Amino acid sequence: MATTTKDKAKKTQATRIGLVDGDKRSKTRKVVLPNEQIHPKYGKIIRRKTVLNVHDEKNVSRTGDLVEIAPCNPVSKTKSWALVRVVRKGASMKFEGIEAPGKDEAKA
To answer: Which residue range forms the structural domain that includes residue 62?
Structure first.
């Protein structure tokens, strides 16, 4: 089985996993990629984040979802990433089965 030049030209694009932070715009999501580094001299953990605008053609993701994104050709001035898939829905798990503290004390 011989490989063609088209197969060699196709490179696997690096995908990244991030958390949807904003879904107010149509077909655009704000995805946050957290990053932790250890300071080389002091050893302190430095928390940083990268915020990317992601193209979501079908509007399937919502705030709090864990999504997989991949680089693509620029769609607009700020969007050069596209949504690949929703890894985990986060909105449905938000505050499920948790009651406010002190609720039982007020009844007693």
So the answer is: 13-90
CB atoms within 10 A of CB 91: 12
pTM of the model: 0.69
Q: Give 87's DSSP letter.
A: E
Q: Is the pLDDT of residue 101 over 70?
A: no
In a domain, 44, yes or no: yes
Residues 6 or more apart whose CB falls under 8 angstroms from that of 31 comprise: 18, 19, 20, 21, 51, 52, 53, 54, 67, 69, 81
Query: Do the domain assignments include residue 74?
Result: yes
CATH number of the domain where residue 23 is located = 2.40.50.140
Is residue 97 included in any domain, yes or no?
A: no
Q: What is the pLDDT of residue 90?
A: 81
Report yes or no on 57 lying in a domain. Answer: yes
Q: What is the pLDDT of residues 16-54, one digit of tens each?
A: 999 999 999 999 999 999 999 999 999 999 999 999 999
Cβ neighbours of residue 106 closer than 8 Å, sequence gap 6 or more: none
